[in-house]
Amino acid sequence: MTIKAKDKLIEITKKAISLVILEDKTCGTGFFIKLPIPTNEKPMYGIMTNNHVINSEYIKSYASFKIKINNESYIIDFNESNFIFTSELIDITFIQLNVDFIKHHDFIFLEPCYDEPNKNEMIYIFQYPKAKLSFASGYIEDHFGFNYFHNTSTNRGSSGSPLLNKFMKVVGVHKIGISTDNGDINLATDFTTIDYAIRTLYNKSYINEIIKAKEPTRSLTKHEDSLFKKYGLEKTPLLNMYYCPYIEYPSSVLLFYRTNHAWYFTRREKSNICYHLDNVKTYNWTLINTDESFTKALENKFSKDESFTKTLENKFNKDESFTKTLENKYSKKLEHHHELLITWLKLSELMYM
Fold it and tell me: Do 172 and 83 fall within a single domain?
């Protein structure tokens, strides 16, 4: 590594990566970022972390939170006029910063990268495991749904750390580590999904109040519940997750998850469904993108399944429990009533969010 590169890394640790402190308790990592939303010419500046670090309940209950960066403490206010986004499924929270706060501090705002990293591409993480700043490097092992699987060393407190490529641009946000009998694997949310979620609610703020982005999905009316059932959506024990059965393959169901910004779907075997959110986050979810053709979304999904299955078999061929939790083959394609249901949800956009 060149001296220039080392200087850049040191500068990032001092001016871009923060320890998140809630009620005097260290809770995770955050980082400053510049989003090209609404445009490159008029970007949003803010701080990003995980939803399980700062969630909608905390935002609703408190006026601010504390961060520590380069041994200095700062208060970040939840300003009602600023844009705030949070989502439990993709596990992301973004808080727009006040202009005065930005002007009075010499921080670095990282920039996102929307190009998908290659497998085994080197990535870097600045983080606060156990409330101590550290640096680690590793590799992207696979891309599954909206999750990157990576092998960078992390620990408690690393949640919310940015995954950086060799150009020091953010490709994802680390959220959780999973321990198995054959080693550990880490998950991060890819930045393309993050951008879509934030951009969708920002662009729709002229229709929906800006507070929608920082709140969980609303409660549905009895009429809406009955309408969902009419279209084939049945409730599950997990709030906001629904299922639609297969006719030809009765052992499988198509799961749907309702967020504040979009619907997601994935196929699971009935015997392999867990109703705990941490497990559900690891599923191979497909975003119902209102800006993307339905056919293209399916082609992207099906083309990745074979490679991911091989990755699981090679890395965790002895760990059946891990494979059962994460593996989600689309060997059985969608049935006609599934396609009609997805099309209806696509056309409804944010109507039921």
Answer: no
DSSP state of 241: E
Q: Is the dihedral of CA 14, 149, 256, 318 positive or negative?
A: negative
| Model confidence pLDDT, tens digit, residues 278-295 | 999 999 999 998 876 545
Domain of residue 79 covers 3-103
The DSSP bridge pattern shows strands 170-180 and 162-164 to be antiparallel
Torsion of CA 301, 40, 187, 257, to 10 degrees: -50
Q: By C-alpha distance, which of 28, 344, 43 is closest to 198?
A: 43
Distance separating alpha carbons of residues 53 and 30, to the nearest angstrom: 9
The answer to whether 107 and 16 are in contact (CB under 8 A) is: yes
3-state helix, strand, coil split of the chain in percent (to 5) is 30, 30, 40
b/e map 225-254, b = 16+ CB within 10 Å: eeebeeebbeebebebbbbbbbeeeeebbb
Question: Quick check: is 205 in a domain?
Answer: no
Same domain, 159 and 229: no
Pick the residue with more confidence: 116 or 7? 116
The residue behind tokens 């930005």 is: 102
CATH number of the structural domain spanning residue 57: 2.40.10.10
129 prior amide bond cis, ω within 30: no
Q: 6 is written with which tokens?
A: 């080392």
State phi, psi for 75 to the nearest 5 degrees.
-105, 130
pTM (2 d.p.): 0.86
Tokens 């091989």 belong to which residue?
310
Buried b (16+ CB within 10 A) or exposed e, 272-307: ebeeebeebbbbbbbbbbeeeeeeebbeebeebbee
Predicted confidence at residue 252, as pLDDT, reads 93
Measured at the alpha carbon of residue 304, what is the angle toward residues 301 and 308, in degrees to the nearest 5?
Answer: 130
The count of domains in the chain is 3
Are 26 and 159 in contact by the 8 Å Cβ rule? The answer is no
